[in-house]
Amino acid sequence: MAKYIVLGAQWGDEGKGKIVDMLAGRMDLVVRFQGGANAGHTVIAGDKEYVLHLIPGGIVSGSAVNVVGNGCVVDPLIFANELEYLHEKEIDVNPEKLIVSSQAHIVTPVHKYLDAVLNKKIGTTGRGIGPAYADKIHRTGIRLESVLDGTFIPRFKEHLETYEQISSKVYDEPFIDAAKALEEMEKAAELISPYIKDSVEVIADYVKKGADILYEGAQGTFLDVDHGTYPFVTSSSTSIGGAFTGSGVFMEFDKRIAIVKAYTTRVGEGPFPTEQENEIGERLRAAGNEYGATTGRPRRCGWLDLKMLRRSFIINGFNFISLSKISCLSGFDTIKAAVDYDDSGSPVYKEFPGWKEDVEGSAELEQLPSACREYIDFIEQELNVPVGMISTGPRRSDIIMKEELF
Ligand code: IMP
């Protein structure tokens, strides 16, 4: 009867995909509750790599049923592409294994057009996320249930006409090819149709049965529309509150797992106090292969920020830390972590001696050099939550279990 939630504690890209994949093999149900195809969850299983944007990462391990919850925004075109991608990779996907909420909102080509026109200064992923959520809040959005009740096409036509008029009066960029969009969306809607269900009932049934359930967060706490570095955020609730509104089912999560990268990265614009726009940042980017899984953009890199993490732990009530990418810190003479900011808002750092040894692939704590262990102990003490797992590389087996999860 495990009820676990995995969330990014920083600005996303903390390495949630690997942990979700690892846990999903033991779960009956995996639930995504926010975001859409802006996510880029990388899973490496055996000698194969899978990058998923919309479909929950739990699909790769093969045993769990996967739910895209009502709080997500779903692009039927990307959904169709991802189905094809998974079939090509010989992953079994069918409506018994994958459920998309009838209450989830649809991302249309118009939303992607608006994202490009309106959100330049944010540096979004261009996947139409903000405009789709804006339509939801404006109460002009289109839910997936419209595909089942036959109202999708007339609603989509109205949506195209409305935005074509706005576009011609307000925006400089030419509008999309409406006829092409209609044709593509009609096809994709047909494809997604068998997967659409009342996901609240599905999740509630699993809870009633005493099933093992994993909630898979996307992005990270400081991209949360309320708690993040607004306006440089995504348009959903990426922190724990989003799990309840975005799935419609209350449950007490026994393990609230913070995925914490051993340093900090962010993609897109916005504040980043510990950013290293220098040789250190470049070294981190190279060591961690820090390029966006969705857009390929180089990620901005910097030291760990414990002040920020303390806030993240308040927001999410984390009780378990999975530390990732520790192996990317090998070779630095000195490692820094911000413990506070001074009056001017600049980080106040604590310095640690680095380590030279390559720790990639370590599976036992004893394999880590003492300087590395000291850094990990410090994180644990500062956040007052156990570091239960340490990921030492991209493969499933590159993991140190300090605390058993099951
Ligand atoms: P949007 O979610 O595409 O609207 O982008 C808003 C901000 O969130 C931008 O700074 C993106 O780079 C960032 N973002 C969105 N999804 C992810 C993600 O999965 N990982 C990291 N950053 C993300």
Shape: globular
Tell me which oligomeric state these chains represent.
single chain
Instruction: Outline the low-pLDDT stretches.
Output: none
- In percent terms, what proportion of residues is strand? 15-25%
Total helical elements: 12
Name the average pLDDT: 96
- Terminal CA distance reads 10 Å
Total strand segments: 19
User: Which strand order spans the largest sheet, edge to edge or round the barrel?
Assistant: 9-7-5-2-10-1-11-15-18-19
Q: Rg from C-alpha positions?
A: 21 Å
Q: What characterizes the major β-sheet?
A: 10 strands, mixed
Identify the bound ligands. inosinic acid
Structural class estimated from helices and strands: alpha/beta
Q: How helix-rich are the residues, as a percent range?
A: 25-40%
Task: Explain what the structure shows.
With 406 residues, the protein is an alpha/beta fold. It contains 12 helices and 19 strands. A hairpin with a 5-residue loop joins β16 and β17. The N and C termini lie close together (10 Å).
